[in-house]
Write a structure and sequence with these properties.
Blueprint: E1 3-7, H1 12-23, E2 27-31, E3 47-49, H2 56-70, E4 75-78, H3 89-108, E5 115-119, H4 147-161, E6 167-172, E7 174-176, H5 182-191, E8 194-198, E9 204-205, E10 207-209, H6 210-223, E11 228-232, E12 238-239, H7 242-251, E13 257-261, H8 263-280, H9 288-295, H10 304-310, H11 318-331
Parallel strand pairs: 1-2, 1-4, 2-3, 4-5, 5-6, 6-11, 7-10, 8-13
Antiparallel strand pairs: 9-12
Length: 335
């Protein structure tokens, strides 16, 4: 039986990858921390493993011990990472340095998998084509303007520098779905009859449902596509109000107050929110990185290569995805 390791398995995307791996009959290993929740990892068929990405020597020993008992992992999906931090230097430390430690440990212990799937982000390209609203393509030059995007780009460049290492990079746009907490905050606000938006200039937005991201991962494994990077979206382009309009429809919300904040005000609020979070030693959903993401006006991306080379075919347009997501929020008692 082929085995698969999913890092960041307790997270939003990671837990869905684990579920699909089990469905496909893989011997499924979930890499989590001791403090990680197993709320969405209840299947008794899941094997758990702890990996210390911070200390290379310990990490190598952990991998050797696992291989001696169970064999090396056939496939690895590296979903571990952070999207918000109290200290921006942590993005580099966790998303880049620890990933590099992991890859080096795999090479050093002769445990290079058949495919190493790295979950990156569209944010590695930053705000480009802001005037002509053309889709971002793989031939464009990345210009990330967030600490998060820069840390992911550094990892991509490291992977691309390796010879004979079978990597696949996936760059999803905004990922939403059940269990996701940032878009949930929008739904919660709308339930309370307030809908926020920012900026008055046209904004083209793209989305991808979590199950379509998972689809792309296993298509890459099935087809054995390596040394490639692909954008992922549902193939459509939406305007800034589309997502909230669909939430309003699903919640049957009435008398929703629409507030459009200017970007300068959002910037001030983001700075204050970030500083307050630092004082509390916590993270804030609204921060300067998030401000730059919300400020970006063009999120179009070209998924044609993923369609042609992976056979990627998005199953969820935004209306279908939002409907399923809101239904889950309700059933889970979040709304």
């Amino acid at each position: 039986m082929d085995s698969i390791l999913v890092t960041g398995a307790s997270g939003f995307i990671g837990s869905f990858i684990v579920e699909e791996a089990l469905q496909k009959g893989y011997s499924t290993w979930a890499a989590i921390r001791k403090s990680s929740s197993k709320q969405y990892l209840q299947d008794p068929a899941i094997h758990f493993i702890e990996l210390d990405y911070t200390h290379p020597d310990i990490l190598q020993e952990q991998l050797k011990e696992h291989a001696s008992e169970h064999g090396a992992f056939t496939y690895i999906v590296h979903c571990a990472g952070v999207t918000k931090c109290t200290d921006k230097s942590d993005f580099d430390c966790i998303n880049y340095q620890q990933t590099m430690n992991f890859i080096k440990a795999l090479i050093a212990t002769n445990q290079v998998p058949k495919l190493f799937v790295f979950i990156s982000t569209l944010s590695v390209f930053g705000p480009i084509h802001e005037k002509d609203y053309q889709p971002i393509t793989e031939h464009d030059k990345p210009q990330p303007n967030t600490a998060y995007g820069r840390s992911k780009l550094k990892t991509e460049l490291y992977l691309e520098s390796l010879t004979n290492f079978p990597y696949l990079i996936l760059r999803p746009t905004g990922v939403y779905g059940p269990r996701e907490k940032d878009y949930y905050m929008m739904a919660k606000s709308i339930q309370q009859h307030v809908d926020f938006s920012v900026g008055y200039k046209r904004q083209d937005i793209t989305f991808v449902y979590v199950k379509d991201v998972v689809q792309a991962i296993f298509l890459g494994i099935k087809k054995g596509v390596t040394q490639r990077a692909f954008f992922l979206s549902d193939g459509k382009v939406y305007q800034s109000r589309t997502f909230s309009n669909l939430i309003i429809r699903e919640l049957k919300a009435t008398k929703v107050l629409r507030i459009c904040a200017p970007l300068w005000l959002l910037k001030i609020v983001s700075i204050i929110s970030e500083q307050c979070a630092k004082l509390r030693h916590t993270t804030s959903t609204l921060n300067t990185d998030k401000y730059r993401i919300m400020k970006q006006r063009n999120w179009r991306c070209d998924i044609t290569p993923a369609i042609n080379e992976l056979g990627y075919a998005p199953q969820y347009q935004l209306d279908k995805g939002v409907k399923e997501t809101i239904a889950w929020y309700k059933e889970a008692g979040w709304l």
